[in-house]
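Quick log. Single chain, no ligands specified.
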Amino acid sequence: MEFPATRLRRLRSTPAMRSLVRETHLHPGALVYPLFLCEGEGVRREIGSMPGVFNLSIDEALKEVEACAGLGLGGLLLFGVPAAKDEAGSGAYAADGIVQRGLRAIKATKASESLVTIADVCLCEYTSHGHCGVVARDGEHYEVENDSSVALLAQTAVSLAEAGADVVAPSDMMDGRVAAIRAALDAAGKPNTPILSYASKFASAFYGPFREAADSAPQFGDRRTYQMDGANLREAMREIEQDIAEGADMLLMKPAMPYLDVIREARQRFDLPMGAYQVSGEYSMLHAAFQRGWLEHERAMLESLLSIRRAGADFIVTYFAKDAAKALG
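-> predicted structure:
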């Protein structure tokens, strides 16, 4: 029988050939590295469930900023670990809050000129109860209030923008937060500060290690009344449409690997710049396999990131950002 004229292996013959015809590429400029800022000086406290990731005092974080700039990363995503918490999460919007002070210090460095500083906008790290908004209680029953939470989130976004954030990124999943933040930023003289909306954020089991890192686990109940049900793809598109209508400039999908179909569907429907967050659980489970010798570190790391890019993400928030940048050369 005559062999077909087309032999697809012809284009796989050498590394140079494979590189030439490669459809999807990773590059350091499309990677965003999360930083957890905490109080103190000289603090570099490793997070037990996230090997190689640390709570950092501002002076130590500045070393990371320099390293990230040197590796050509695209940006930083900043979270705060405050010394004290309260019911209203006041540390999130305090002018001298940990992230606000960190932003001012970072923006004063030359290294930051090549990095986009993205400030997470949420209350969960700052509330004594660990929820992402204001909680109303009636005996054993509680409700995370939407509209009063939105007011505080808008205040937080303004505070972070005034401290120097290039981008504010609401991750709370309250209804109407993007419109409120846009209005507050404009009123505060920050009309050019973009909003990166966690437009499709699911109530996921993969956030566990992050809650250790940020000390943000809910003290009661869970977040399923405001974060999305993982079974709902169509609803995710509605969430994204609503955020775009309210003025979102960019989208962030979270988590990434368990929801690649959601990323793909969003990419096909919407033209906004879109990122995906390879969350703590994704990172930690891969590290667990690396430590046991079950997976090859560099290959599995890059393959996981490539899958997210191939699904449609323009950029990736990942704890692997520095390691990936080194591997990509």
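Residues 139 and 220 are 13 Å apart (CA to CA).
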